[in-house]
C-alpha cells in the first residue's frame, strides 16, 4: 500500500529534467489523483503544464512531494499542518539566505573602509 512505505524505501530520483505524473506517482508511492489534489492544497507545488494540460514535474517538485508525503503519512500532520510546516521551512531558508547576504555585504564594506583609511 502506498501510504505505508517510508521515504527511505522510495526509489532514487533518476537524473531527468521532467517527470510525468505516472513516473512521480511511482517515485513517491502516491496515486496520481492524490498528486492532483496536493497541487490544489500546496501552493509550492506547481508542475509545468504543456500540451493537453499534461503535467510535467521537475526534480524539486518530486523532492517537495516526498516532503509532503513524509509530513502527512509518516509524521501524521494534517494538510493544514503540513502547509504550515512547509511555509515555516521556506521562511527559515529565506532568513538564512538573508543573513548570508548581510554577512557578505558587511565584509565587503569593512574591507572598503580599511582601504579608505589607508
Characteristics of this structure?
single chain; 118 residues; mainly alpha; Multidrug-efflux Transporter Regulator, Chain: A, Domain 2; three-stranded antiparallel β-sheet; 8% strand; elongated
Give your account of this protein's structure.
The protein has 118 residues and is mainly α. It has one domain: Multidrug-efflux Transporter Regulator, Chain: A, Domain 2 (Orthogonal Bundle). It contains 4 helices and 3 strands. It has a 3-stranded antiparallel sheet with strand order 1-3-2. The protein starts with 18 loop residues before the first strand and ends with a helix. The N terminus is likely disordered.
The CATH architecture would be Orthogonal Bundle
Number of strands: 3
Share of residues in helices: 55-70%
- How would the global form be characterised? elongated
Helical run tally:
4
CA-atom Rg in angstroms: 20 Å
Structural class: mainly alpha
* Overall structural domain count: 1
Amino acid at each position: 500500500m502506498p501510504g505505508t512505505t517510508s521515504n527511505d524505501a522510495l526509489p532514487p530520483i533518476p537524473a531527468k529534467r521532467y517527470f510525468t505524473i505516472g513516473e512521480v506517482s511511482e517515485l513517491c508511492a502516491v496515486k496520481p489523483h492524490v498528486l492532483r489534489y496536493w497541487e490544489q492544497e500546496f501552493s509550492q507545488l506547481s508542475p509545468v503544464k504543456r500540451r493537453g494540460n499534461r503535467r510535467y514535474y521537475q526534480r524539486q517538485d518530486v523532492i517537495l512531494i516526498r516532503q509532503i508525503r513524509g509530513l502527512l503519512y509518516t509524521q501524521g500532520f494534517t494538510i493544514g499542518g503540513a502547509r504550515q510546516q512547509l511555509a515555516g521551512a521556506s521562511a527559515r531558508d529565506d532568513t538564512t539566505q538573508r543573513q548570508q547576504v548581510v554577512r557578505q555585504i558587511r565584509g565587503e564594506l569593512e574591507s572598503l573602509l580599511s582601504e579608505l583609511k589607508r
